[in-house]
Amino acid sequence: MTAHRPILAAAAMRTAEAAATCGLTELMERAGRGLAEAALRFAGPMPALVLCGPGNNGGDGYVAARLLRERGCPVRIAASGEPNTDLARAARSQWNGPIEALDEAPPAPLLIDCLFGTGLKRALEVAVSEALITLVEASHIAVAADLPSGVEADSGARLSPVPDFDLTVAFGALKPAHRLMPAMAGMGRVVLADIGIDAPGPWFEIGEPVLPSIAPDAHKFSRGLVHCLAGEMPGAIALSAKAAAHSGAGYVRISTSLPIAGLPLSVVQVGDAQVNDPKIGCLLVGPGLGKLPQLLTLALVSHRPKVIDADAIGHIGEPGRLKGQDAVLTPHAGEFERLFGALPGTKAEQALAAAEASGAVVVFKGPDTLVASPDGRIGFAPPAPAWLATAGTGDVLAGMIAALRARGLPAFEAACAGVWLQGRAAERAGASMIADDLVAQL
Ligand SMILES: NC(=O)C1=CN([C@@H]2O[C@H](COP(=O)(O)OP(=O)(O)OC[C@H]3O[C@@H](n4cnc5c(N)ncnc54)[C@H](O)[C@@H]3O)[C@@H](O)[C@H]2O)[C@@H](O)CC1
Ligand SMILES: Nc1ncnc2c1ncn2[C@@H]1O[C@H](COP(=O)(O)OP(=O)(O)O)[C@@H](O)[C@H]1O
Ligand SMILES: [K+]
Asked: Which residue intervals define the domain YjeF N-terminal in the entry (predicted)?
C-alpha cells in the first residue's frame, strides 16, 4: 500500500509553512537543499544556470545555487529583479558570486527555474516569459522549483506560455497543479522534497488502496452482488459487468430484455430488474443506456447503493434528485457540464461543488481525474496513461467501482480505489490496449 499524499492549495501551504516549528529560514534552506539534491541526482554535476524571481521561490534558488556550488558544480545566477521578501534577501546575501540580468544571460546545460512558485498571481511579463522559454529550450535538462513559472498552483492553468520541464521538485507537499491539466502535462517527473511540513488535510493524491480481504467463510453474496441495468446498447454494460466480476464481486447480474452476447457465462442475465433485492451490494446504471430515462428512475427508486454513469447522467436533470441516494457519479467533462452547468473555479472546486449539490461522490474523469465527496475530501488521481482515452474504459471503471462498493468499501473509498486500479491496469495493458484488454489486467 502507498499512503495518500497530501495536496495543499497555495493558501493551505502558506498556513502549514507558518506553523512549521523549525522556522521559515530553515524551511527555505531545506527547500533549496532538496532542489539542489534532486537536480544533482537527476542531471549529474553539469554547469547550471539558476533563474531567481523576486519572491521566496527565488529565495530557494539562491540557496540551491550556493549548495550546488559547494558540491563543485559550476553555477551562475540570473535574476529578474531584486528580492522583495526578507527571506529571499537573506538567501541572496549568502551568494557571493555575480548575478546576471535575466534578459542577457546565456544558457547553460542545466536550467533551474526559481522565478515564481505558489505566489504567482498573473501572467509573467513578456520579456521574462520569453527569456524563460529561450533558456529552457537551450538547456539539456530543465528543472522547475516547486512549479514551472507561469503555472497557477491551485488551478493548473498556465497564466502565460510555459516551456516543458524534465523535472519538477515540489516543496513540502504536492499542490493541485501537480495533478491538474494542463500544467501537469509539462512538468516532467514530479518529485517531492520533504521540508518537514506535516499537513494532512482533506485533499490528497490517491495512493494504492487496501482492499477488503476475502473472508475464509465467504460465499458469493457476501463477496458482493452487483446488479447492472442494461439499456439500448448492451455492449457497454457487458464491459462494466465483466469488469465488476474481475474486480472481486461475488455475483454479477444484468437485467435485460434481450439476451446479451459475449458475456462470461458466470454473469447472470435476468429479465426482471429486482432493484430492491436486499442482496444487491451495488446497482450500476448508465453504460449503453441510451434514451431510456425510466431505467434511471427505476434505479433511483431502489434503496441500494448505486453507480450512475454515462447516459444515465444525462437523464438526471436536477442534481438534487440524488440526495440521499448513496450514489457514485462518474461524469467525463461533457457529462459533468450537462448536469451541473458551467461551474466557476478550479476543477477541484467544481468537483466539490458538484458533490455538495448532488450529495453524491463525484468522479470527475479526464486525464486529471478527481474524486470529490460531499464532506469536502478530494482524491486526485496519480498520472495515468493517455491511452486510457479509448471507448469503453469509462464503462470498465464504473463496473470496477460498483464491485468495490458491493465488496463493502464506502462510496468515496470505492471510487478512489477504482480510479487508482484503473490507472495501474492501463499501465500493464500497454499503449495498444482497448477497453477489453483493461479488463484482462484487473
Ligand atoms: N513561505 C515559506 O516559508 C517558504 C516558501 N517556499 C517557496 O516560496 C514560494 C512561494 O513564495 P512567494 O509567496 O514569495 O511567491 P513566489 O516566489 O512564487 O513569487 C511571488 C512574488 O512575485 C510577485 N508576483 C506574482 N506574480 C507575478 C508576476 N506574474 N510577475 C511579477 N511578479 C509577480 C508576487 O507579488 C510576489 O512578490 C514557494 O513556491 C516555494 O518555492 C519555500 O522556500 C519553503 C518555505
Ligand atoms: N488523456 C487521458 N489520460 C488518462 N486517462 C484518460 C485520458 N482520457 C480519458 N481518460 C480516462 O479514460 C476513461 C474514459 O471514460 P469515458 O470518457 O467515460 O469513456 P467511455 O464512455 O467510452 O467509457 C476515464 O476513466 C478517464 O479518466
Ligand atoms: K518555479
From this structure: 8-203
